[in-house]
């Protein structure tokens, strides 16, 4: 207790001294700075000091680089470790731990169902959730997985860790025999704690060992430029059950000019409807055409397709069962002959009965050797040929053979033709009238001109090789369309009013009549157009009223939409005719003149057989009514 009291007294004594007014603090000042004599400062580094500074700086920089590199390496290792743990470690899911295997034949017949068993093994430590199995394969034989694709999808739910799931699917493949068709198998899944969709893919190839429809193209392997070519396409069912609604399409190469086909195409010039294809029934199609604008050394490929008809487009193939190619090599003929008709070189030519046909055959020896005994023939046939008009000054027309012949008997140079030599021979012919009282109306008036060229080439000693070539041209005769236009006053379909001759500032009405006739070929899309002068008014009455005749008051244009003119119209059957009425009020300035009542009329149409457009122009008509038998002399001049 005594000791504690002493401690307390000392504390109190200390407080009184610290906080008392008489307390003074003693501060001891110590000057620790030593004052020495001033020293001069150098204005540059000493050499030893500079080297010491550089060494110290380099040491510090090297340490910083080492620290930075160590940090980068540590970061990369840490990232790699984290990635490994995320993708492969622990409870994560890796696509490498998912196996897809396919059990089934690696070959099949086209068009037949192929059963496949697909096994999915989950070797991950966690389950696969919301699993979908997707199977994709080409729908047609001509497409791959990137185009027209058939897609099957099956939901598999959850595949537990370590489990194997088996699924059975059936696919139907098409393709050429021996071709490979791909099947893509995909597994889509999710994992716990993530909304992302992960995918595992596998590709499985199937070999097509047979096709449901056999296709073949029979055609030459080589052909000369501008020569005719015939292709035989055959389709045969290679199955035990009927294939319904089958189409066949033939794609032509550039330079092929379609001429005809038997049977005729169902759509355009290259699609045929085969209907229901029965087992072992062969469908054969013959296509004739010509290779034009092609050159020596080129190759041209034809491609045939067959398959089911599309429900939305009757001319399109929905599912292609098979396809086949055929390639033609274009090679220059050893000797060639080209037929020009009226200076035009084309397979089909159209002309009227008035214009004579001037034929020119241009020949060339393309060999490096001579050709002996050159002979050219032109066989002329057809129902429109006037045999009495066939003429050739250089050759001989054999009427028994219907051929014009040129050989060494008529042209001396044909005995021996040197390499590269060329020339031409000519003939002329006219068409028969398309209608005669004895023969009646010609149907599809045509001339067929088939030319051939032949010669002999010496190959070894006295051995001669015969060379030949040729081509065929068709001349179609355009139908004679008659177009008569006339103006009447005293006769015709309407009762006209006013005076004849017309009087100034007094109205007179007239009847305009358009009459059409036709001979051998049907004419379609026929129209007649004309206009009225400013001083003539369209009255508005038409006969017969059923005819499609329109008048535009703003342009004063009259259009008769005739439509079709059947063959024989106005000759063997009734002509097509329309009449309409116009009114004319002469001006004082027209006194003494015969003013125009209707301007030029133009007929346009299309000859369906000759496949050419028809156009006929008729001049304007005035008040001189030459076609009205009761029209008086001088009745055309306007009087006062």
Break the fold down into its secondary structure elements and pairings.
Elements (H helix, E strand, L loop, with lengths): L1 H18 L27 H41 L10 E6 L3 E3 L3 E10 L5 E11 L10 E11 L4 E9 L7 E11 L7 E13 L2 E6 L3 E2 L4 E10 L5 E9 L4 E7 L8 E7 L4 E10 L7 E11 L7 E14 L4 E7 L6 E4 L5 E9 L5 E11 L3 E7 L4 E3 L4 E4 L9 E2 L4 E10 L3 E2 L3 E2 L4 E15 L2 E15 L3 E8 L19 E11 L4 E9 L4 E8 L5 E4 L4 E9 L10 E9 L11 E3 L2 E7 L4 E7 L2 E2 L18
Parallel strand pairs: 2-8, 10-17, 19-30
Antiparallel strand pairs: 1-3, 3-6, 4-5, 4-7, 7-8, 9-11, 11-15, 12-14, 12-16, 13-15, 16-17, 18-20, 20-26, 21-24, 21-25, 21-29, 22-26, 23-24, 27-28, 29-30, 31-32, 32-37, 33-36, 33-39, 34-37, 35-36, 38-41, 39-40
Protein name: DUF11 domain-containing protein
Keywords: Membrane, Transmembrane, Transmembrane helix
Organism: Candidatus Nomurabacteria bacterium RIFCSPLOWO2_01_FULL_39_17
